[in-house]
Amino acid sequence: MRLFSLFIIVMFLAACNNPDDNYLKPRNLIEYGIPYTILAPDSVDIKKENFTVADEVIIKSQKSDDYEVRIYFGEATKDLAATKAEHLNNLKGISAYSSVNVILDEPNGFIFETVIDSTLHNFGFRRIVVQGDKEYIFQSGNGNYTKEQAEEMYQATIPQEMKK
User: Fold this and answer.
1) ∠ at Cα 25 (22, 26), nearest 5°?
2) What would the mean pLDDT of 19-40 be, rounded to a whole number?
3) Who contacts 33 (Cβ-Cβ below 8 Å, separation ≥6)?
């Protein structure tokens, strides 16, 4: 009986300390030129690339392939609605996709499904933030993501400063 009780206690403690619970933590991106805090896994690789027209920051989980967010930013060239429409049109113009379906449509972004054939489906997102004369495009990385993974990354890219 004593051994059984110890087993139950150990199982309870293990369940309470699940490392996957709330694995996304606030990550301030100011040192990369982005004045926002988003949610990201504890262990990430962050890489910044400087291009002529815009800069790119890639945030990728070190532990799994289910989290990669790319952020492109530079001078705002259009209003938010026009930028969002351009991104959606660009996706729909990729000839490899037999269809692009919008799963969630919000004023500043969308989650989408791309279909290559009946067996190849992938999900991704775009989130656009325009602040002053700067534009920030948050998008899913170059992986194959499930709907749930795309939704999680999309929600994680809501700048924490805008939730207040």
Assistant:
1) 145
2) 87
3) 48, 55, 57, 73
What CATH number did the domain enclosing 69 receive?
3.40.1000
Under 8 Å between Cβ of 127 and 108: yes
- Percent of the chain's residues with pLDDT above 70: 86
pTM: 0.83
Calpha distance 85→92 (Å, rounded): 11
| In a domain? residue 3 | no
CA 160 to each of CA 27, 40, 133, 164: distance values in angstroms, whole numbers, following the listed order: 9, 12, 20, 7
Domain span including residue 113: 22-163
- Nearest 5°: the CA angle 102, 29, 148 is 30
For position 10, what pLDDT does the model report? 40
- Find the largest Cα–Cα distance for the chain: 70
Q: What is the model's pLDDT at position 22?
A: 62
